[in-house]
Amino acid sequence: MAGLRAALVTGAALLLFSPIQAFAEFEIPEVDGEKGGLELEYRGAQHWGYPRPDEDGDIDALRQSHEVEIQYAIADWWMIRITPNFEEPADDSIDIFTVGIETQFVLVPRKGGRFGLALMAGYGPADWFVDVDDPDEVEFGPVAEFANDKWLLTLNPRIANQEELGLEYAAQLQYRFAAHWSGAVMAFGEIEELAHTGPFNVQTHAVGPSLYWFSGAHHGEAEAHEQGRSAEWSAGLGTLFGLTSQTADVTLRGTLRMEY
User: Fold this and answer.
1) CB atoms < 10 A from the CB of 156, how many?
2) How far from 105 is each of 205, 207, 259, CA to CA, in Å?
3) pLDDT of 57-66, one tens digit each?
4) Given phi > 0 = left and psi -120 to 50 = alpha, else beta, which region is 238?
5) Count H helices, E strands: the chain?
6) Going by C-beta distance under 8 Å and a sequence separation of 6 or more, which residues neighbour residue 90?
7) pTM of the prediction?
8) Which tens digit of pLDDT belongs to each residue from 124-154?
9) Looking at domain 2-259, does it have CATH number 2.40.160.40?
10) How do the domains of the chain map onto residue ranges?
């Protein structure tokens, strides 16, 4: 286990400093935290089938997307996250590096129960590492978990403000069918301007299945807290299918997480 832990930490460090790319919207957050807990998570995706050009003939799409999220729990009810992002646009013109900063406050801890609620807020400076005129992005919204036996529903709608007030969301319905395995249906989407949503087909929406493996008790379950803190690992692989012309046709999404 010590060797595996060292390998993952080394891999995460290499990701932070290698010329690969990132995309933050494929995050499925969790409500609970544990004081002093450290979490490293890699999320990556490969995209096929680019969206149609907009009215100006531009294509706002990615070929690959990768990110590494580092989370630390200052208290059971307060977590902070920093997420370096690496992006490769569809035209291969440039690799874009940005950093997102988030904080999360637990309002109702779930701790293996049926319901949990947290409030998250994030800030994405646009010009820290690249010379662009885009405005910074601020987003906030709830993280809600509803559990029943082996089922877990996670909802994370977020209000985002860059140039206009928009809506982003992540949702997942997960079923734990074995001690170390679960299957899920996940969905992600974005409406850039709530004041001018336009038809559904010009928005970004994707949905698809995912499979997860866990090394031990899933984070948030009662037995994990009773056993005390120990390193736990999880990995996921899923496919997203675009529902609109402004969404990539198919996206392969992978995750790798270490919690301690």
Assistant:
1) 22
2) 27, 28, 18
3) 455 566 778 8
4) beta
5) 2, 12
6) 50, 59, 61, 62, 63
7) 0.81
8) 876 555 555 667 789 999 999 999 999 999 9
9) yes
10) 2-259
